[in-house]
Amino acid sequence: MLGTKMYTFLKVAEYLNFTKAAEALYMTQPAVSQQIKQLEEEVGAKVFIRNKNGLILTQQGEIVLKYARRQKALYDKMLLELENSEKNVGPLRIGITHTSESNVTAAALAKYSIENNGVKIMLTTDTINNLYDKLENYELDLAIIDASSNNPKFSSMLLDIDYLMCVLSPDNPLSQRSAVTISELKKEKMILRSSESATRKLFEETLVYNGEDISSFDVILEVDNIATIKDLIRKDLGVSIIPRSACLDEIRKGKIKALPIENFSMVRETRIVYNKDFRHKEVLDDIIRIYGKTASV
């Protein structure tokens, strides 16, 4: 069970305010301060300091927060498994990237739930690095990620192979082509994912490999939301580079065209990543099977 001092610490770290944390915990502010003081004595380090804006975590506090979250996640996971010990599998906490919000992943997970007697799925959307952190801290059971992990604590299974393509409006003259060239792309207004996204990184790495640089392109907008990018593309306000899987529905309905870039190969794997002690490997097989059926419809 998570100790009282650690639980109090988590609340203070959440609000960065003793008074607000005390209200949330139904405690007095001096009692909260005393709990934090005792924790600091126990770990032998200051976990919070004050600046002009209020409380901030110290470097040591960040370390304590990392492990406190992991303790809480493990405790919550234990309670879930005990509650569902007579069932085949309990609620699944699955993390996906922003790209996966716009492809068949969410639909496949919904179909998995329906086919398995309404198994509850709690879906979290976040960046790849944050998903890895949550997975390592046992805040997630699975993460569906557009990259491979070198973390020895994780295992993974291939879910899909995807391709980055140039997406554009059917009204764009280039949409009548079978492929676009880099020279043609340089003349277009480009709407791209943020520089921290895996999609953007793969595009830029491929450019460098082919002797090109992102600075040669007219990037008018950086957007982290795939749905927003697709909406702007449909309105013919620019072109983008996104995974084909993220716009399958729009391609089938003729709302967007997706073309390869001549002499460029931007292939990436989508994998289900999980901790090595994940016990329900049959869940992975079912998700992969249902994903394949959903993607082929």
TrEMBL record:
Pfam families: HTH_1, LysR_substrate. One of its GO terms (molecular function) is DNA-binding transcription factor activity. CDD domains: PBP2_LTTR_substrate. The keyword Lipid biosynthesis does not apply. Residues 1-58 form the HTH lysR-type domain. Keywords: DNA-binding, Transcription, Transcription regulation. SUPFAM superfamilies: Periplasmic binding protein-like II (SSF53850), Winged helix' DNA-binding domain (SSF46785). Transmembrane segments: none annotated. It comes from the Bacteria. Belongs to the LysR transcriptional regulatory family. This is LysR family transcriptional regulator. It comes from Bullifex porci.
